[in-house]
Amino acid sequence: MDEKIQAKQRLRFQILEIMYGAVDGNANAFVAEKALSEHLGIERRLLSYEIDFLVRERLLGRHGQDVTLTHEGMREVEAMRTRPDEPTRHFVAFNVMNIGSMVGSQINQASPSAAQTTAETLSPTAHGEAILAAVERMETLDPQQRSELLDVAQRLLVLLRAPSGHASPESLSRM
Q: How would residue 51 be classed by pLDDT, with cut points 50, 70 and 90?
């Protein structure tokens, strides 16, 4: 979908949401267009175009410089809120997931240049085995240093393989 159209639809949806919250389901309550503009942080002229659109759709009403949510507008917002996975008469299904920060997620943002890679995480035991294998391949080390490193790697592996808190000092000293 065209990005400009999506932006307009998001703004229209946001206007209805704000209006619904502001009038608390009361079709006789009004919100000043100026206050709406300040709340949304957009120019009144741009907001006015979107309000005019929503008025023509009979979702909002205009009374001078004030705006109200119509009965149809309330039904539209309630339909969007109660069935977010289904389109309404005026809006496509619109699900938003707002996550501040996420690391290692399998969720990918849909954008033209989006890419996702995953990596398997080794268990602590697998890490210990990899360390031991790496030390065993270190043939250029001084034999004494290599022997000490192998001893440390084997002790580490014993600790990692033992059930949590069950590796005894005796099991380590026997190595």
A: very high
Say whether pTM exceeds 0.70. Answer: no
**Using CA atoms, how far apart are residues 109 and 68, in angstroms rounded to an integer?**
35
Q: Report the alpha-carbon distance of residue 79 to residue 89 in Å, rounded.
A: 9
- 42's CB contacts (< 8 A; 6+ apart) are 11
* Rounded distance between C-alpha atoms, residue 108 and residue 144, angstroms: 50
Going 128 to 130 to 131 to 132, the CA torsion angle's sign is positive
Among 16, 12, 14, 13, which Cα is nearest to 71's?
Answer: 16
Token output for 62 = 């205009």
Tens digits of per-residue pLDDT, 86-139?
Answer: 666 666 665 556 566 666 665 555 555 556 665 556 677 787 888 888 888 888
**Average pLDDT, integer, range 47-66:** 91
Cα–Cα–Cα angle for 110, 111, 117, rounded to 5 degrees = 70
